[in-house]
Amino acid sequence: MNKPIASIPPLTQRVSRYILDQALAGGYENGRHMTEADLAGRLGISRTPVRAALRFLHERDVLAHAPNRGYTLVAGREALALVRRELPEDEEKTLYYRLLRDRLSGKLPTRVNELELAQGYGVARALLRTVLTTLLQDGVLRGRHYQRWEFTETLDSVESERESYRFRLTVECAALREPGFRVDHERLLACRERQRALLAQASRHSWMDFFEANAQFHELLAAASGNRFILDAVRQQNRLRRMSDLSDYPLVNIDLLHTSCREHLQILEAVEDNDLEGAAAHMHSHLSRASDLVERRAMGVLGD
């Protein structure tokens, strides 16, 4: 008889969610051998909760087990999705997004106090500290000082985001028309492979991968312009967009994120063919379409 989900420790649930999300996103293929050491290393935890998660997923027929050989992924997509729906959402992820959205909406000030946050959100200090540390690692917060944290600068209004896109339409299209434009071919190939991998495998759960790959793409072309001021401007925009993008990605229809990857590949292909005017035209269309997400969020239809 299967254990009730409520009796499974939170850390074991977290590991189980990670395995299921990776499998659903295509990161783990059917037949993959799962080891305690690999998973513990990836998640930065001890082997004990990993061992418990592997046993739980074996009980749910997601993994097969052979003595002296360990666990192997055997479940199909429908079975994976069914077990994933059994598990409650990750408390850390839920709080992470609440803090992002409350900061963007102005409910949270730039500087926050750890104790006041824990009381205001009704969460344990240990959980809150874990989430704040993650936000720090993701570049959303600045360092802690006597339980005080500071959010980094962001695009904190619809109008500032509109201005950002108008600025990027000017700067990033101009980058492709710079007389000294020259792209590093190896970096272009690496960027293209990353976009293709996201298009082939990524899911809604790959939000950080989407953000990092998107920033890499735009900074690659800015660097290729040979104009240091253009590169500085694009890097600044990526820093400013981090909070709003990380907040938006889990709400965006996955097809829109895949469309963005295809547009990136189209621009890279034009650059590789030395059709820089064509690349600039594609970039203008790409940024114009992306700016529509701002309007969709303003109307409350971002995930439609």
From TrEMBL:
Residues 9-76 form the HTH gntR-type domain. The keyword DNA-binding applies. InterPro entries: GntR_C (IPR011711), TF_FadR/GntR_C (IPR008920), Tscrpt_reg_HTH_GntR (IPR000524), WH-like_DNA-bd_sf (IPR036388), WH_DNA-bd_sf (IPR036390). One of its GO terms (molecular function) is DNA binding. Keywords: DNA-binding, Transcription, Transcription regulation. Pfam families: FCD, GntR. It comes from the Bacteria. SUPFAM superfamilies: GntR ligand-binding domain-like, Winged helix' DNA-binding domain. Transmembrane segments: none annotated. PANTHER family: TRANSCRIPTIONAL REGULATOR, GNTR FAMILY (PTHR43537), TRANSCRIPTIONAL REGULATORY PROTEIN (PTHR43537:SF49). This is DNA-binding GntR family transcriptional regulator. The lineage of its organism: Bacteria, Pseudomonadati, Pseudomonadota, Betaproteobacteria, Burkholderiales.
